[in-house]
Each structure stands twice: as structure tokens, then as C-alpha cells.
Design a protein that fits this description.
Number of strands of chain B: 0
Largest interface: A-B, 36 and 27 residues
Distance between the termini of chain B: 57 Å
Strand order of the largest sheet of chain A: 6-7-8-3-9-10
Order of helices and strands of chain B: HHHHHHHHHHHHHHHHHHHHHHHHHH
Radius of gyration of chain A: 25 Å
Helix content of chain A: 10-25%
Number of helices of chain B: 26
Largest sheet of chain B: none
Shape of chain B: globular
Strand content of chain A: 35-45%
Structural class of chain B: mainly alpha
Oligomer: heterodimer
Helix content of chain B: over 70%
Strand content of chain B: under 5%
Radius of gyration of chain B: 27 Å
Amino acid sequence: MATITLRNLTKRFGEVTAVDDVSLSVADSHFVTLLGPSGCGKTTTLRILAGFIRPDSGEVRVDGELYSSPGRALPPEKRQMGMVFQSYAVWPHLTVFENVAFGLRLQKLPAEEIRRRVHGVLDRVGLADMGARYPNQLSGGQQQRVALARSIVVEPKILLLDEPLSNLDAKLRERMRTELKDLQRALGITFVYVTHDQAEALALSDRIAVFDRGRVLQYASPREVYEHPANRVVADFMGQVNLLDGEVVERAPEGNVARVRVGETLTLSATSRERLDIGRHVAVVIRPEDVVVTREHPGKPANVLRAAVRDSVFLGNVVDCRLRVDGHELRAQVDRGAFLATGDQVYVHVQPDHCLALT
Amino acid sequence: METNGALTQPLTARGAAVIVGWRQRLPIENVVLGLAALALLVLVGYPLVWLALGSLGLPTKLSLARYADIVGDPSYRQPLVNTVELAAGTAVLSVLFGVPLAWLVARTDVPAKRLIRTCTALAYIIPPYLTALAYIILAGPNAGVLNALFVAVTGAKEGPLNVFSMPGVIVVISVHAFAIVFFFTYSALLSVDATQEEAAWILGAGRLTTLRRITLPLVAPAITAGALLAAVISMALFGPQAFLGLPGRLFFLPTRIFSLFSRYPPDTAGASALAFALIVLTALGLGLQRWYLARRSYVTLGGKASRPAPLALGRWRWVGLAYALLVIGFAVFIPLFVLVSAAFSKNWVAGLSPENLTLENFQYALFQEQVTRRAVGNSLKLAVAAATAATLIGALVAYLNRRTTARGRQFLDYLSILPLGLPGIVLAVGIIQAWIRPPLVLYGTIWILLVCYVARFIPVAVRSADASLAQVDPALEDAARIIGASWLQTFRTITARLIRPGLLVAWLLVFIPSMGELSATVLLYSSGNETLSVALYRLQELGRLEVVSAIAVFTVILTLLALVVAQRIAGKELDELASGR
């Protein structure tokens, strides 16, 4: 059982406000990701949670118990948390076995139990026969597993992970991602995970907190964050999007659909969260995979535009296509069966509920 | 097309001419660099050859008798045993002084960090024979200030301290050598990734457990290496060994070598053999240090190192500060204070009082007494000349090693670093044998001291120049060559300009130790060519401690001036400068 509540956390470093009034609550056994570009405050938040940093204001509670506040903070060693660092922080002067056994030895457990648990966890992370090695004899991926084993062998209530996969190559990263998810399900403990990689966040999390400049912009499920980003910053951060600046010129009689004029001549029907006033400046966000490209007119009532193909790049599973629409550039991801050549005249269609008008 | 042709035509012609010319005459760079290499061979290599020959009894007769004496003859063996004892004692004390200070400064919120760092560097830079001098005044058996104080307070017959003893020598050398351990430990602590400690912390280890189980083991190789280097340095320090050992007939290898050389007729073979014993001990220490560092270096493992927040010590920070002040007090403040007050006293035993104040000691040392007056001039001339020559040769050797593919350049590089591992007196034994006989007789002139200083301090110049050169992209030189500058022009206008600050620092880093050099000078000087250090050494033997203190204060002031300038140019903290970081 471990629920976490962050309430109005703020942390300044000199002039810079690293964490700005952050409030989050994490349910028990959830996998929560703090996502954002570097310097957005996600790591500082994690380190406050770990007890390495004290907040300037606000508080951290775990299971309702006060862990951190400006005046009082439980030291890290008393928090019963585990942490995996970006640099792994595997101790080079200790063997793999001793690295993993460290926390158990501090608990003064019997030697036999330590041996059993260390071997158990090494087996689980796939390092069964590496116990006698020193870290400098291991690859980066293996060191990462040692760090992981070391932090879960003590059976923490909460596991904190600070960009644990960022030093691995792409293929290994994907494999570790799956293993982490499996591990979290098997352990059933709360994971708080920091990353700047949105694909990682989408794949792993129960909920994602999107950070920017010290603030949480959105805290929701991966699907919600992806399909209904709270604003243009979140949309921009969640993978590649087309962002078109425009102005609301007309409203549908009901529902949250509006006509948005982009530039001089282009007008699109777009969906928004709330009813938008006429004249409101918005960003129209369209994901490349939601752009449908056809040679014939698709015969839909709204959002059908004429476009010229500027170029198309074969990416393997899809074709990435740059289109010219009324003086605007639009990216589209189309089926690899579509053979588009530069200069081709095509039709573009985007369903109004895939056109998001964000403020 | 025509313009194109017109352009290429002369270019090809010129290119051909250059290639022909290059084949025909020796290019200037080969001459210049060759001369630098030759200078290095003559200055460093030649004396070493004579050191080896001399120890075998050459040129008189070939014999290994002297080596046998080291084992058999107690007057040879005892100094060896004493030297090892001194080295071991220094290693232990240096760790006790240096490690806590390094940890306090690197990892905690102890106050006055900069003061601690600067004073540690000063402890390293002040010539240790001056510290020894201060400790004679401070803890001499009868009249020593601390002993007099003890007698006055307790009413005992005599004070408990006797600086003319093995513990005395070890303490005085350790308050100098602990700086090495400090430098090593401090930079190792800075390079330990803070997450290494946080990882232990969050697993349930307290601060102390983390320090004991993680931090200290991680920096243990650096501590050991620092202690070994401190031990090696302690063995070579002639000054304190002579000042504090000779009155009690306590001999170490350097002082025994000196005594063998200064009797008549000098026992050259015996001195050379002992010198070799000292080299072996030094090489052993340095070899062990390198091996240990290479085998167990933990730095630069894992990702980027992050700097930790300093550990809040709470009230304990004052305890830490007290300890640091105690160490730097005994290393810097108290010795300097003692020297300054003795220098301004009519009689140092009488203590500080208005009646006892005088400027006469300075007046006597700097203007009246012939030898010291001469010595000031000699020391300045020698230090300037040695710094200039060493920097020039050093820059060229560094260039040769870094920028060319000349054969044997690694050997030159090695040769240029070698004097670093040679105790001053050992080098002097080689130099005296090399330059006392034709083809070039320098013994009896001031030139032999110049030759010695250049040889002794060339490693500093080479390393400093090399570090600067490493910062200069070779493309900057290539760009000058391709638009028509000759090698010499390029070296003068581009390379030398770009590394000029580094060279100035190198110059000062040779100048400073040259001003205070004693351990080789004491063997090589001749009447009329005395240096400040020799004048001080001789007056000390005569017991004129007030005048000696005045010379000491003068030396310290010159050293500090040069240091401040070097620090300004280099833009570094004093401890960074002193430890060569």
C-alpha cells in the first residue's frame, strides 16, 4: 500500500523556480510518469519525493503520512523507497552480489536470507551468474539491471526511476521497457518514473504528468494525454503534430465544434473542450496519422482541402509526406502502399474530431 | 577557364620548388626541435649516466663494493632504515591531516573552505626547510617557545618537546606533505558521482554508513596514491632532514649522501650507491602508486557525475573547522608567525616586546653581510635564467611530443618527466660527476647551479606547456602554414601566442622552486656562488636564527609575490595551481 500526494510543491534554485506549485496524487500500485523536456522540473520533483531536496513550500505525503515539508523532512534512508538513477550509480568497488546485498545487509538480515533474496532477484533480472563480477566487467544494460535489482530487493513501497533507460541503445531500451512494465505488474508497487521520451511514457504509464517550466500541464491517462492534450504545449510534446495558428470565426449551433480560419483563405472545422468565443485565437492541432490523403475527392462534407505533394519520405512502416495546403505546410503519415510523388495534386481530409482547437 | 589556369600554374611551380627545397636543406624546425632534444639529453640524460657509472666506482675502478656496504655497513644501512621509517610516518600523518580536510572542504558545509584550500596550497609551496627552521624556534629542546611556555606554566625543569628527533622530522615534513594527500583526495571526492552516495542513502544507509561503506572505499585509491607520493617526497627533503636530523646525528639517505660528499676526499662511489638506493626507494613508491591507481581507479565510471549538495554538519561544522584550523595553523600560520617575529627580534628567546623589536636582521642580511647580499643576487639571477631556459626547452619538447611524429619523442617525453622522481641530492650527485670533468667543466661556477635547476624543474615546464598545447587545435597552426607562414613564423606568431599564458605560468612555476632550492644546491655551490637557501643553511649552522629568519621571511615574500602573479595569469585557485590541476 502506497499512495502519494504532492500538494502545492514549489522549489526555487536562486532565481529559477524549478518546481512551481505542483500537486499530484498517485494511487496505490500505479505506474506514474513525470514527462517533460530537460529542465522542466520533473527530476527535481522526483528528488523531493526521494527526500534529497526539501521543498520551499508544499508537502509530500505517503499514505497520508507527512514525508516532506519546508520545515520537516523524513531523511531518504527512512522512506522505504527504491531508486534507479540515470547514471545507474552502481558502486564500482563492490561486486554485483555486494551491490545488491547492500540494502539487505543494512537491515541486518541473516546471511542465508540475504543470499537467497539476492540470488532470487538476480535471477529475475537475468543476471543469475554475474554475482561475482565487478561493475566494470558489465555492459551498460547489465549495470542497469544491477541498479534495478539493488533497488527492488529491499521490497520498497515505492520505486523511483530517474530516466533509467536514457543511456541504453534503442533496441535494448525497448526490451527493458517491456521488462519494467512486467516487473511493475508482478511487484504490485507504486512506480514513479521520470523521462523525456513520450513513447516510453505512453507505453509504461497508468497516468502521465506532463511538465513544463516547473508546472504540471496535464495529468491524465496516456490515451487522454495523446488524444486530448490540454493545450498546445502538451500536444507539441506528445509526438509529431501539425500546429496551425488561427482564429474562431463561426460556431456550430451545439457541441464544441467551431470554424477556425487559418491564414487568409483556409477554414477548418475543429473540436474543442469548451465552447469558444468568436474571435478567440487558437492553435489547430492535427496529428499526421489523422490526415487522410486521396487522389479523388473523398466526398465528405467538411475539411476537404486540395493539396500538392512537396515530398514524401519512405520510413518503412509508413510514408511521411509533406503537403502544401493553401500556403501552409501539413505533414501526413500515409500507408506505404500510397505512391505519392513530388508535385502530385491530391485531396486532404481530416475529420473534425481529429482537428483539435487548443488555447 | 583561363584565369583558373593562370592561377594553378605558378602554384604548381611553387609547390615543386618547396618539395625540392625540403629535400635539399635541413628545415628550420628540425634544427630548433633537435636542439631542444639535445639540451634535454645533455641536461638530464648525461648526469644520470654519470650517476650510474659513479656508483660502480668509475672512472677509477669498477667495483660493487659500495652496494654491498648498504647492506653490511651500519653507517650506510641506518640512514636507509631511517628513511623508510620517515616515509612510513609521513604517509600515516599526511593521511590523518589531509583526508579529513579534503572531505570537509569537498563534501560538507564547513565554513572558510577557501581559506583551508589556500592554506593547504601554501603549506605545500613554502619551502619545508623554512618550516623546519620555525619549528626549531618553536620546539627546540631547551629554549623552544613551546617548551619555555610549558616550563613557565608547570614549573617543570624542562619542556617535553624535542624537534631534533625522528618524530620531530616526521611532523615537520608531514605538515608540508599532507597537502599532496589533500589534493588527491579532494579531486577524487569531487569526481565521485553523487548518485553513488544517494543510492546507498535511499536504501537505508545513514550519512556515516554511506561515508564509511561507499565514499571512503571509492576514494581509497586516491588516498593511497597520495600517501605514497607524500612518502616519496618526504624521503627527498634534504632541508628538514638536515636542520632537524644532523644536530642529533640522525641521518637519512640525503643527509648521509651529503656527508659522504662533503668530507675529504669525497666518497663519490659511496654517495652514488646511496643515491641509487634512494632512487630505488623512490621508484618503488612511485611504481606502486601508478600500479595502484591503474588497477583500482573508480572515477569516470557510469554516467555524468553530478555535484552533490554539501552535507550539513550542523554544530559539528565548528568541530570540523577547529580541526582544519589546527592543521593549517601548525602547517602555515604558526611557522610563519614564528619566523616573522624572530626576524624582527633582537633575540628570539626573549619573546615579543617593544624593546626586543628591530629591523637590524634585515639590514644585516640584505645589505651588510657579504655572503647573503651576494646570495640574493645569485638566487634571483639563477631563478630567472632557469625559468626562462626551462620554459623554452619545455615548450619545444612538448611541441615535439604532441605535434610531430619524430622517432624517439616518447623517450624524450619520458626523460623530461624523469627528474620529477629524482630527489634533488641524487640529481646533484649525478650533475657534479658529469660537470666536474671535461669536456665541459662547470663545477666551481654558478653555471652548474643553472644546469641543475633547469634539469630539476624541466618536468614542471614540460607538463605546463603540454597542457596548454593540448588546448590549441592543430588546425589553427595548419591554417597559418597553408597561407604561407613558415614553421618558425607559425610557432612564434600562432602557437607561442596562444599558449603564452600557460608558458608564463610555467615560467613562474619554475621560478618559485628555483628561488628556494636547497637539496641539490647544497652539494653544488661554491664560494662566491651561494644562493639564498645556502646562505640560510650556513647561518643556521652558526645559530644566527634571527638573521636566518629574516632571510626566510624575505624568501617567503618573493615566493608569495610570484605566486600571486602566477595565480592571476592562470586564473585558478592557489590549490589548483599548486597541485597542477
